[in-house]
Structures are given as structure tokens and as C-alpha cells.
Design brief:
It is a single chain. The chain is of the alpha+beta class. Helix content is 27%, strand content 20%. Strands 1, 2, 3, 4, 7, 8, 9, 10 and 11 form a 9-stranded antiparallel β-sheet that branches. Strands 5-6 form a two-stranded antiparallel sheet. A hairpin with a 5-residue loop joins β9 (306-308) and β10.
Length: 373
């Protein structure tokens, strides 16, 4: 073949150029990734607890004090949440709201002003393995802000905290680790110690009706009780343990999340299973034994915890239950003999009544703190 035959013709060159141009034009015209869809803020229960079913990757917890009447303040916060999650609030600074959720709770002091006998009126008692400054304990108001976009929680928090009468007490951000499939439609993340976290909980509607949602009295029906605790973890000391010793602390396999007693990851542990020489497969001080509902004698907690790396590596523990006793009894059981607790130090803590759901015509907090028309 001579050089003239090897040289592409002008027509072939132009055809290739046009084809490349069309391809580039099609690529440029492709719509950007729209990201996750919106999560409605209005409803019988607040978003951010069971919706979305798989929690968003990013979380910001803010505890605040309030210095004004709670009824009008909560109603105003509800109106702002509706506009923020709908993307019609200019204070989002042009960010699409995506799957932004804001969950609001009130602390025991406010609940007691309404009725000291209501769920949510009791505070958490002091516990072992705590080093908590007074400013990092409790609060009148909880804002749990979650989103797939890490920019959204701090932007939404800035908008809500600008409401007159609200003063920030403490905050903590966190992120979910890689998600591990547990059962159909359910996943659980790994924590900074490498183990799958939050496998067992009230996941079915029947379990949630029994252990999660408050059924009454009317001012709190449709709400729940949240416990929030910021815990630093001694990752260095835990990582120095052999893998088998780490698994004995949790009572689960590190790689799969399966209980040491066998089965699949979604299974609860067989607490009676023993080795041929009579040793428990799940050690007596393993975390899943000490926190097991049957051992504790209480209900299930829905855990929505996030890992954190500042101010130190740790866990931002968030649990929801319809009876504070579920948490306090579980913690008491752990304090008796839980191999995980010596690796933890709690540095912030609070419990809050998560208010019932709301809508444009049913203001946030109106069942607990009615406001004049």
C-alpha cells in the first residue's frame, strides 16, 4: 500500500470530526445526577427515624436551649423545616435538598412544664465511663439533621439556629460506614472498630408498634424517645487485640457480622450454645449478650448511630425507643459486665421526646404545646 492509500481522505476526516462532535454534544447535554429523592417532612411521624429506611450517610446532631415559649417556637421551626426540605428556602444557598431530613425533639425540662408524668419527662441518670462537661449534657431542643450531601446538615442547622430564642449547647457530626446487607431491604453500617453495628432492632411494623412509637397519651402519640450519646472509642488499644479477642468483645464475627453462635447476620445470638468442653460460644461478657433484650428484660431499641473522627474517633450513638427504661436497663446490664465498655468514654449525652409528626395545617409540637389561634 502506497502513502496516498494510507492517508485518510478529507471526507473520512470530516465524517470522524462530525461524529466526535455529536458524541461530545450528547455527553455535554446529559442531565447531571439528580441525587436521592426528597423525603417528605410532613406525616404521622417525623422523618429521620424509620424514613428513609437506610439512613443517609451524613448526620449533624445539635442540642440547644430555648429562652422563649416552646409552642410558637416549635411551630416556626416546623414551618422552616417544610421549606428547607422542599427546597424553597433561600437559606439553602442554592443547594438541592435531596433527601434532607430534620427530626426535632424536646428535653425533659420542657416536657415537665407540660406534665411531669408524660413520657420524655425523665432525664438520664449518671453512668459509668462518662466524662461530660455540664454544657455537653442535656438540652431543651434536639435537631437531628441527616442528608446524603455533607454540605446540607450544617447549612440547614445555621438556618434553624438563627431562630430567635434558640441558643446552641453542643453539636456533633458523624458519617455512616460502609453498609452491609442484613436482610431484604435492611442494611447496617460498620463502625470505627470494624464491626457491623445496629443489626438487631424493631424493624417490622409490629415490632415498631410495640417498642418504638408512643401510643399515648394523646399529646405524645406518634412520637418516640431518643437517647443521644457521643462516645470516644480507644481504637488503638482495641486494634492491638487479636481478631479472635475483638470478636469475643462483640460476640460477632468481624468480617461477616454473624453471631459467634452461628447462623446468619440477621439472627440473634443463641445465648445457650456451648462448645463441646462447655464454654459459651458467645462469651458471658460479650456486648451482644449484655445488651440482648432477653437478658436486659426490656424492649428493642432502633439504633441510628454514626461514626465520628472528631474530636476523637468514636460513635455518635442515637437510639429510639418508646420507653426510656429500655435504654437505662440496657446500660445497667452492660455496666455489670460488658467487654466493650472499657473501650468507651461518653463525652456528651441527652434524652429527648421526639415530637409527633406534623404538617402545614398541624404545627410541629402543637399536641404538646398548643398555641392560640
Amino acid at each position: 500500500m502506497n502513502p496516498a492509500e494510507r492517508r485518510p481522505s478529507r471526507r473520512a476526516f470530516l465524517g470522524a470530526a462530525v461524529t466526535a462532535g455529536l458524541a461530545a454534544g450528547c455527553h455535554a447535554a446529559a442531565p447531571p445526577d439528580s441525587g436521592p429523592g426528597p423525603i417528605p417532612a410532613a406525616g404521622p411521624q417525623q422523618a429521620g427515624i424509620t424514613t428513609p429506611r437506610q439512613p443517609q450517610p451524613h448526620l449533624l446532631i445539635v442540642s440547644a436551649d430555648i429562652s422563649v415559649a416552646p409552642g410558637p417556637l416549635l411551630a416556626e421551626l416546623g414551618r422552616q423545616i417544610l421549606t428547607l426540605t422542599a427546597g424553597t428556602d433561600n437559606r439553602l444557598l442554592g443547594l438541592p435538598p435531596g433527601d434532607l431530613t430534620v427530626t426535632v425533639g424536646v428535653g425533659p425540662r420542657l416536657v415537665q412544664t407540660r406534665d411531669p408524668h408524660l413520657p420524655g419527662a425523665k432525664d438520664l441518670p449518671p453512668a459509668a465511663h462518662e466524662t461530660i462537661a455540664p454544657s455537653d449534657r442535656g438540652g431543651d431542643l434536639l435537631l437531628q439533621i441527616c442528608a446524603s450531601d455533607p454540605l446540607l446538615p450544617p447549612v440547614a442547622a445555621a438556618a434553624l439556629l438563627a431562630t430567635p430564642g434558640v441558643r446552641e449547647r453542643w453539636r456533633q457530626s458523624g458519617a455512616r460506614g460502609p453498609h452491609v446487607p442484613v436482610s431484604e431491604g435492611q442494611t447496617a453500617p460498620r463502625n470505627v472498630l470494624g464491626f457491623v453495628d445496629g443489626i438487631i432492632g424493631p424493624h417490622t411494623p409490629a415490632e415498631q408498634q410495640r417498642d418504638l412509637w408512643l401510643a399515648g397519651p394523646p399529646p405524645v402519640a406518634g412520637g418516640t424517645i431518643a437517647v443521644v450519646r457521643r462516645m470516644t472509642l480507644d481504637v488503638t488499644r482495641f486494634a492491638a487485640l487479636p481478631a479472635a479477642a475483638q470478636e469475643a468483645v462483640f460476640g460477632r464475627r468481624r468480617d461477616t457480622g454473624i453471631p459467634l453462635s452461628g447462623g446468619v447476620i440477621a439472627d440473634g445470638p443463641d445465648l445457650g450454645a456451648k462448645t463441646p468442653d462447655g464454654r459459651y460460644l458467645v462469651p458471658a461478657d460479650a456486648h451482644i449478650r449484655r445488651a440482648h433484650a432477653n437478658v436486659v428484660g426490656a424492649g428493642l431499641m432502633l439504633r441510628r448511630s454514626y461514626s465520628m473522627d472528631a474530636p476523637a474517633p468514636g460513635l455518635l450513638f442515637v437510639s429510639f425507643q418508646n420507653d426510656l427504661h429500655t435504654f437505662t436497663a440496657t446500660l445497667a446490664s452492660m455496666e455489670t459486665a460488658d467487654a466493650l465498655l472499657p473501650f468507651t468514654t461518653t463525652t456528651a449525652s441527652g434524652t429527648f421526646l421526639i415530637l409527633p409528626g406534623f404538617a402545614e395545617h398541624r404545627p410541629l409540637g402543637s399536641t404538646l404545646f398548643p398555641t392560640p389561634n
